[in-house]
Amino acid sequence: MNLALNGQLQTIASGTGHLCAYVKGQGRPLILVHTINAAASAAEVRPLFESLSQHRTVYAIDLPGYGLSERADRLYTPRLMTNALHDLVKHIQAVHGTQAIDALAVSLSCEFLARAAAEQPTHFQTISLVSPTGFTGLKLRQAEEGKTYGLNWLWKLLKGPGWGLSIFNLLTRPKVIRYFLKKTWGSPNIDEEMYRYAVWTTRQPGAEHAPLSFLSAQLFSADITNIYDKLQQKVWMSHGTRGDFVDYRGKQRYANSKNWCFTVYESGALPYFEMPDQFSADLLHFISPT
Question: Edge-to-edge strand order for the sheet containing 29-33?
Answer without folding.
Answer: 8-12, 19-24, 57-62, 29-33, 101-106, 124-130, 234-240, 260-265
